[in-house]
Amino acid sequence: MVEDITALETTALGSLTAAEHRSDRQALEQWRLTYLGSQGQIRQLMRCIGQLPLEERRTFGSAVQSLAQRLEVAYKASEQRVSDRLLNRELEAERIDVTLPGRPHAQGLIHPLRQTLSDVVRAFANLGFQAVEGPEVEWDTYNFELLNIPANHPARDMWDTLWITDRMLLRTHTSPMQVRTMRMASATARRQGNEPPALRIVVPGRTYRYEQVDATHESQFMQLEGLLVDHQSSFSDLKGVLTDVARQLFGQARKTRFRCDYFPFVEPGAELAMDCFACEGRDPHCRVCHGSGWIEILGCGMVHPKVLENGGYDPQRYRGFAFGLGIERITMLRHGIDDIRLFYLNDVQLWRQVRYAPGAPRSWNREVPE
Fold it and tell me: Which of 223, 241, 303, 319 is catalytic?
């Protein structure tokens, strides 16, 4: 009987080694059922113990029990090795190289209007101008009357106003901050017993007009107003400031031209035009300058004495100049956009084209997200 147990152990361990070598879980399970299961060969040997003589039962039973324990230990060890081997294969198959760079996320870009506004404000900041903001819902007093545009004056027809009440409106320009800023500065100076200080401000913001929307007009648009007040400013200073800003925005080779124009709150008033950067005046069919060789970009002039007086500044002692430009118009010129309505479509294809436009600033030199 002992020889049978030894032979059984040899056969069982050989079969277990073969199943383990194949890394076959089903073969291992079948081996367990064959030798250690409820109907397996170890169980059958235990059933034979009762048929043996009394003096042989203890020895045989002990030998069978010892065999069962050895086979159980061998099975668990083989099962663990097979599990580890299969797991390593799965890990190897699914392995990723964590040293590779990750997939970059697409980054968005600043809206072209906001980008142009930042560039314009920065250009004036380089010349000492400080940016201030004001309310978009304005009083008629500041929007018109204190800017030398009294009630029933024909100049009011220049602005198609959106009224909220008979005295309150959505501002038609950012010019009201001229008087607001002068009044705050002069009032503070008087309380301190000082003269009103010199001012250099630009006023960026959104404005509103009752316009028929088309390729060049919108009911809301962004504007930047500027004001300089001191004792010695002149029209030549105005020309120098605006020429420098035009060259910061459109290139140092730009030439400028000033022609007389009318604005109620300046005297004299002028329009600023620069030479056409698209055709340089050589193409009579140029779509940018329409063959004239010049592009109008803003209005300007010396601050009217009444406006200075309304702001608390003595027009006999102080002088100043003001200017205003449309951010949409500057952006359209810089990037070759021919329809103002495109700014509000959020069309990624448009921004991709804007990125490669000749006038696109360096800050646009990034990929547009898909």
Answer: 223
Query: What order of strands is seen across the sheet that includes strand 137-139?
Result: 137-139, 168-170, 162-163
User: Do 46 and 194 belong to one domain?
Assistant: no
> Do 75 and 135 lie in a common domain?
no
Q: Give domain status of residue 197, yes or no.
A: yes
Which CATH number fits the domain that encloses residue 125? 3.30.930.10
Q: Output 28 or 227, whichever has higher pLDDT.
A: 227
Q: At residue 302, does pLDDT exceed 60? A: yes
State CA 291 to chain mean position distance: 38
Residue of 266, 273, 307, 354 marked catalytic: 266
Check if 173 is active-site. Answer: yes
The whole-angstrom separation of Cα 329 and Cα 293 is 17
- Phi-psi domain of 273 (left: phi exceeds 0; alpha: psi -120 through 50; beta: other): beta
Torsion over CA of 114, 138, 225 and 209, rounded to 10 degrees?
70
- Would residue 51 count as lying in a domain? yes
Look at residues 66, 93, 120 and tell me which one is the last residue of a structural domain: 93
**Identified catalytic residue from 171, 180, 200, 209:** 209
pLDDT in tens, 306-329: 999 999 999 999 999 999 999 988
Q: Say whether 351 is catalytic.
A: no
Active site residue 209: yes
The alpha-helical segments, DSSP class H, found in 230-363 are 235-250, 305-310, 327-335, 348-355
322 is catalytic: yes
Q: 89 with 230, same domain?
A: no
Q: Which residues pair with 223 in a beta bridge?
A: 205, 326
Residues above pLDDT 70, as percent of the chain: 91
Query: Could you report the per-residue pLDDT of 32-42, keeping only the tens digit for each?
Result: 888 888 787 77
| Catalytic site includes residue 223 | yes
Which domain does 52 fall in, by range? Answer: 2-93
Residue 21 lies in a domain: yes
